[in-house]
Amino acid sequence: MSHIVTVQDAVTAFEDFMEPTSAELEAIEREMPVILADVELLDAQIITIDRTPSELDARRIRRARRRLLAAHRDHVNGLSGQTGGAA
User: Fold this and answer.
1) Which of 27, 44, 29, 39 is nearest to 68 (CA)?
2) What angle, 0 to 180 degrees and rounded to 10, lies between the N-to-C axes of helices 55-80 and 22-47?
3) Residue 49 class from Cβ within 10 Å (0-12 exposed, 13-18 middle, 19+ buried)?
4) Sign of the alpha-carbon torsion through 5, 9, 10, 11
5) Per-residue confidence in pLDDT tens, the chain, 87 aa
6) What residues have CB less than 8 Å from 13, skipping those under 6 apart?
7) Does residue 44 contact residue 58 with C-beta atoms inside 8 Å?
8) pTM over 0.90
9) CB 41 within 8 A of CB 65
């Protein structure tokens, strides 16, 4: 019979590295407007998956797409002013 043995030491050896660093958390925070705008666009698109989009749905998708593009533009423009950051 083969026994299953946990490899706790191998799994927890990198425990310190499993959490995001403060720099990674700051990068996520800077990108949060883009993430939220992308979620808004996905929500608008999901609503219309199983039906023909109405005029209101089409406007909602266009508006969400414009917000996503504006958030992405602002994010990229904000990154261009930084030096040494990961883009």
Assistant:
1) 39
2) 160
3) exposed
4) positive
5) 676 666 666 666 666 667 888 999 999 999 999 999 999 999 999 999 999 999 999 999 999 999 999 999 999 998 776 655 554
6) none
7) no
8) no
9) yes
Residue type, position 2, single letter: S
What whole-number distance in Å separates Cα of residue 23 and Cα of residue 87? 13
H/E run at residue 25: helix 22-47
Cα separation, 64 vs 45, in Å, equals: 9
Q: Which two tokens stand for residue 34?
A: 């883009």
Nearest to 70 by CA among 40, 46, 25: 40
Q: How many CB atoms lie within 10 A of CB 51?
A: 8
